[in-house]
Specification:
By secondary structure, this protein is of the alpha/beta class. The protein has a single domain (2-106, 152-172), classed as Maf protein (Alpha-Beta Complex). Helices cover 42% and strands 22% of the residues.
């Protein structure tokens, strides 16, 4: 099973590999940098759109059987900002399914920093790095790892999101519309 991931981020590639390996005996992950078509720091529906674009672009750029797009960002629900992740998976027939990962409240300090620096193209990972004095946290534990004190790492959070997006492909008889 060849699976393309629309990112060179090793955390995303490992999450896809480990999720697909639960269901398919042999998995080859192709990690490829593609355009998400959304801003560097996606908000709200941009997160889903960016993930779908990454899945489509990864699929189209390779000979993989599935394309995966993983996108993280900020979602506002009922006036509160949450950190969110979304996975879109597209098969060779361009059928696309997705899954939201867990949402957790984004600290007001982080929201304030994002709003102040968003014009400069700063992403959540950049802000987390600055606030924690760490480097490249989005390719290691991620914000979720830092805020959960190491209990939930970014790869694990994304792995469950990938599994959620795989569910319709694993249960086609329930999801088929025709």
């Amino acid at each position: 099973m060849r699976v393309a991931v629309g990112s060179k981020n090793p955390v995303k590639a490992r999450a896809v590999n480990r999720a697909f390996s639960l269901y398919f005996p042999v998995v080859e992950v192709i990690s490829i940098e593609v355009d998400s078509g959304v801003s560097n720091q996606p908000y709200n529906e941009e997160i889903k759109v960016g993930a779908e674009n990454r899945a489509r672009n990864a699929l189209n750029a390779t000979d993989a059987e599935f394309g995966n797009g993983l996108e993280g960002g900020i979602v506002e629900i009922y006036g509160t900002a949450y950190i969110a992740g979304y996975c879109a998976i597209m098969n060779q027939y361009h059928e696309c399914h997705g899954s939201w990962g867990s949402l957790w409240e984004c600290p007001a300090l982080v929201v304030k920093e994002l709003e102040a620096k968003n014009e400069n193209g700063k992403e959540l990972g950049d802000i987390i790095d600055e606030l924690t004095k760490r480097k490249n946290t989005k390719q290691t534990e991620g914000a979720i790892g830092i805020f959960s004190k190491g209990v939930i790492l970014r790869e694990l959070a994304f792995r469950y999101t990938v599994i959620g997006a795989l569910i319709p492909f694993l249960n086609e008889r329930f999801y088929r519309t025709s």
